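User: Structure with heme C, tokens only please.
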Amino acid sequence: MQKNSIKNLAVSGLVTAAVAFGSVAQAEGNSVDKSTFNGWKLYKRQRCETCHGPTAEGGAAFPNLVVALQNRTKEEFTTIVLNGKGNMPAFQGNKAVVEGIDDLYTYLKGRSDGTVPAGELTEAQ
Ligand code: HEC
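Assistant:
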């Protein structure tokens, strides 16, 4: 009985945090919240994947975003993606990326903190 109420408290705490910050990924296995799911689709469709790899772990000439997002604020992330950096193109002219930047951040931040697994995702119903 007591165990149960402690568990419920922890779960409602998680939900509150997600609502308060708006960019905290929620995942149960590969089933994820809408924002994370949209971010994942953008990551693949807008060619982030071409350079940063299917699991976002980068390659020889491309940074590992799973590691990078542990040290980047959301503001820094947004600035880099929209303005470009070094050999990375600017995405400020890409409407889908501009409008979906929060979702992209949610997805990649979730990958970096271990909440979101690599690979195919489905949207939680
Ligand atoms: C043409 C290849 C290419 C594409 C496409 C690309 N990137 Fe990059 N990205 C790079 C390179 C190269 C860097 C390293 C830039 C530097 O530090 O000089 C980088 C850096 C970054 C960084 C900063 C990493 C750090 O050091 O903290 C982020 C975040 C990032 N990319 C996200 C994205 C996202 C999101 C997309 C898709 C919307 C994307 N990138 C598409 C090549 C690419």
